[in-house]
């Protein structure tokens, strides 16, 4: 049809929210109206530009990715003119950088990877506290590693550069006075850590994730592994880094190995602080109202609730998230 323009190329929401005179929360209603009343344009096949939601996750075999994929499916299905997709990353620290730089709209991160004091004005905000990450120290019976101190002189993967695992593990080893000259540290992601342990190239690896971690489940089904108890280190970690760390159990039912107690800290879903309030309110609503569907993608997502979701220290909640939580308060 000669009078019909081709659909514009996809773009992010950033140009929308910078339009002079436009209220921050107005972008989503305008897009919804345009979708609902196509006849006003005089062209049935024209559509407004898609709002891109890039979700920074982690390894394809870990929790962030499974959670992010399910969330992207829900957003694409239920928000008109939103195009959501996941990005594979090194996880927490890289996700913070991507959201802060405007290269992702949403991301998952451990609480201990966040700056102790947010920037003013904030460039990132929280949507919700979603679940707790548990620090796994995975080894084999043949390694002889039974305690954290047994890592002295061993080859150990401490997590990929830019990951929350590396941050928590580095803090733990520092508190335990196990320096880089005493523990031979490899900086591998989850999948590479599993392969290195299987091949005998390392003696153990750390990984911080929600239960169960798929790659650890698969490894435990294929060969004998064991977890090292880290419960005694929660209090020393809290003394050096207050505000995050608690003890949590990994029962036998998770991986079929002897149960242990370990160090855990919260996970947050973060968002660019300049996203429109109306859009973030809808994101928050779907995150909470579709908990069962998200939990079917990974059980860790089932831990969410509006009551616990608002505890996101040191990050402020995004105003759109605040509006939704306030609206559903009993």
TrEMBL record:
Keywords: Receptor. InterPro entries: TRAP_TAXI. Coiled coil: none annotated. The keyword Nucleotidyltransferase does not apply. It comes from the Bacteria. The keyword Nucleotide-binding does not apply. NCBIfam families: TRAP_TAXI (TIGR02122). This is TRAP transporter solute receptor, TAXI family. It comes from Salinispora tropica (strain ATCC BAA-916 / DSM 44818 / JCM 13857 / NBRC 105044 / CNB-440). The lineage of its organism: Bacteria, Bacillati, Actinomycetota, Actinomycetes, Micromonosporales.
